[in-house]
Amino acid sequence: MELAYIPSPSRGVIHLGPIPLRGYAFCIIIGVFVAVWLGNKRWIARGGRAGTVADIAVWAVPFGLVGGRLYHVITDYELYFSEGRDWVDAFKIWEGGLGIWGAIALGAVGAWIGCRRRGIPLPAYADAVAPGIALAQALGRWGNWFNQELYGRRTDVPWALEITSSTDGRVPGTYHPTFLYESLWCIGVAVLVIWADRRFRMGHGRAFALYVAAYCAGRFWVEYMRVDDAHHILGLRLNNWTALLVFLLAVIYIVVSARKRPGREAVVEPGAADGDSGGASGEKKTDTDADADTDGAKTSEADAGTGTGDAAEDTKESRDEAESARKG
């Protein structure tokens, strides 16, 4: 008999009248808000405008959701297209099933479009939002808790996760809460990226690459613990191979980028600094112009006065000469 365990929710959806409120969706939405909030603070600190991160997120988030769903459906196609399955379920994103690899890949495409429209370098934007993405993943993983999915092997440790559902092949019991392990790991990744970025002033996409590498390292061992059905290659789950490959690519990028483009970007958003000080500069310019006009007016008056004095002196001299000639 287990002395302690983490209970699973009896249901993952609450109906507010005809409107279903799903825990999985709430976790994703809250994660997006946290990512945008933190990314905005970091972007402003780098010299960007407030609101730019949210504007680009309007492109990145929808692309990311589509990419995450596509990766899941493609790699687990038998859940939707095998005999006895309904392919329409592939569109039911609220029931769970988002692949982070596809979400980041296609989300980057959306972010690139948003950055291009504003003339912003994508690597700088990626560096700013990297820790926020990690925190968004930490929150999003709790959606798996609501759906009673993606758990690990059986265990009787005090922090074991109790699975009560028996649908889709689940066997009730206590298992390793891999959703919790990954959530805590992602929080650690966010802290690591923030610290490293401040300590080494990482730029040109290296902070984002550090996030990717650190996440992949944790995802490898968490994925190894999971017991849900997955495709295997040479004894390892597909996501293990994906994590290993992406980890190597991220490390290579950090090394090569640091050699070719050391330091960080001096300007991350063209015109942001000018926009902040433009009003003050304009006022100073106006004051300077007014002073110049005043000085010019004074000079003109002085010149006019000098001219009048010279004319009077000339007239006096002419009169004296005329008087002298008359007397002579």
Any key phrases for this structure?
328 residues, 10 helices, 66% helix, 5% strand
Following the backbone from N to C, one meets helices and strands in this order, namely: EEHHHHHHEEHHEEHH
* Shape designation: globular
Q: What structural class do the secondary elements suggest? A: mainly alpha
Helical content, roughly?
A: 55-70%
User: Which regions have little confidence, pLDDT < 50, spanning 5+ residues?
Assistant: 277-318, 321-328
Tally of helical runs: 10
Tell me the radius of gyration.
34 Å
What is the makeup of the main sheet?
A: 2 strands, antiparallel
Total number of strands: 6
Q: Enumerate the strands of the largest sheet in spatial order, edge to edge or round the barrel.
A: 1-2
Strand content: 5-15%
Average pLDDT level:
84
- Distance separating the two termini: 144 Å
Structural features, described:
- This protein has 328 residues and is mostly helical.
- Helices cover 66% and strands 5% of the residues.
- The protein has helices at residues 23-45, 52-75, 78-81, 100-118, 122-140, 142-147, 178-200, 206-225, 238-260, 272-327; strands spanning 13-16, 19-22, 161-163, 173-175, 232-233, 236-237.
- The strands form three sheets. It has a two-stranded antiparallel ribbon. A two-stranded antiparallel sheet has the order 3-4.
- The N and C termini lie far apart (144 Å).
Question: How is the topology of this model organized?
Answer:
Layout: E1 13-16, E2 19-22, H1 23-45, H2 52-75, H3 78-81, H4 100-118, H5 122-140, H6 142-147, E3 161-163, E4 173-175, H7 178-200, H8 206-225, E5 232-233, E6 236-237, H9 238-260, H10 272-327
Antiparallel strand pairs: 1-2, 3-4, 5-6
Helix pairs in contact: 1-2, 1-5, 2-4, 5-7, 5-8, 7-8, 8-9
